[in-house]
Amino acid sequence: MGVPERLAEPDDTKFLARTDRRHLYSVPMSTGEAAPAPPTTPWQATMWTCSLCGHCNLTGEQCEACGVARRYLDDPPLDVPFTPRLTDLSSFWIGLMWGVAALGGTFALLSPTLRDTIGPVFLLLEVFAAGAAFVSSMFTAAWERIFNQIELQVPPHAAAGSVFQARLKLVPYSVVENVTVKFSLSDRFYQDKGNEVELKTKRLDANRVLQRGRLPGRRMTDLSAEFMAPFPMTKHTHMQAELNASFLSVLSLFVPSLKFSAKNVKEHGGYYVEAYVRVGLLSRRYHKRVFTYAIGNQVHIG
């Protein structure tokens, strides 16, 4: 039976489609070949389901039913408090106290009677010290309003020649721009010089992991760097450092920023990982000691 002329007309697209499909399936295909997948439509590529209300959204980064942002569901914020007010921070009130002391010293310095009674040298030193403490306390308060948590983690010990990892966890209260983070490994040791002992610091390695970056608010950012544990061969303990650290710890009750100095002095000797964090004009350094050891004919610990 012949095919009707109507079916042979080029206008009959249905017949041509069936003919092309039969021709496609009749072509032999090896096992290593596969038919191309049908193209994905734009709405299929961007489709997502809201886990809160179950609504299927075709496009957009916000649920059309409940209005929740897609980013909130993929990366939910941590359960941390909101940015504290300045009046909630003790460092702010301590800085305010030092500011009043600096203003009082300036007023006494400008008064001829008080200047002659107290002494100009003492007043100059008082104004300088109180002003420095005021600036330091205010910087500390500003830093405490940026980050809810900053934690430097290093292994307690590492064998000499092995590779260990240092990690820094940062949780800001809100989005923070222009953040720079750098890791470094230093050897802090004591060197005898006659009747005196000098504190020495030798940087062994450094690694910049973030340069003017951006940290998401109310979410944890985890940065890390790797270092090779050095062989312990320098002097890491001294009694005078312990006494200086105890003295600075007492002063830190009045100048909050000195508690970092006291901790650094007390833990001066040893191999330390330092995390340097800078946000605009504000910066902080966090230190953690790593004990290294080597076992051979003798046991070396540093």
Q: How would you describe this structure to a colleague?
A:
With 302 residues, this protein is α+β, with helices and mostly antiparallel strands. It folds into 2 domains: 86-144; 147-301, Immunoglobulin-like (Sandwich), CATH 2.60.40.640. It is built from 9 helices and 11 strands. The chain has helices spanning 5-8, 13-26, 42-46, 70-74, 90-110, 112-118, 120-144, 239-251, 258-266, and strands spanning 48-49, 56-57, 147-153, 157-159, 163-172, 176-193, 196-215, 221-228, 270-279, 282-295, 299-301. Strands 4, 6, 7, 9, 10 and 11 form a 6-stranded mixed sheet that branches. Helix 5 packs antiparallel against helix 7 and helix 8 (239-251) runs antiparallel to helix 9 (258-266).
List the helices and strands and how they pair.
Layout: H1 5-8, H2 13-26, H3 42-46, E1 48-49, E2 56-57, H4 70-74, H5 90-110, H6 112-118, H7 120-144, E3 147-153, E4 157-159, E5 163-172, E6 176-193, E7 196-215, E8 221-228, H8 239-251, H9 258-266, E9 270-279, E10 282-295, E11 299-301
Parallel strand pairs: 4-10
Antiparallel strand pairs: 1-2, 3-5, 5-8, 6-7, 6-9, 9-10, 10-11
Helix pairs in contact: 5-7, 8-9
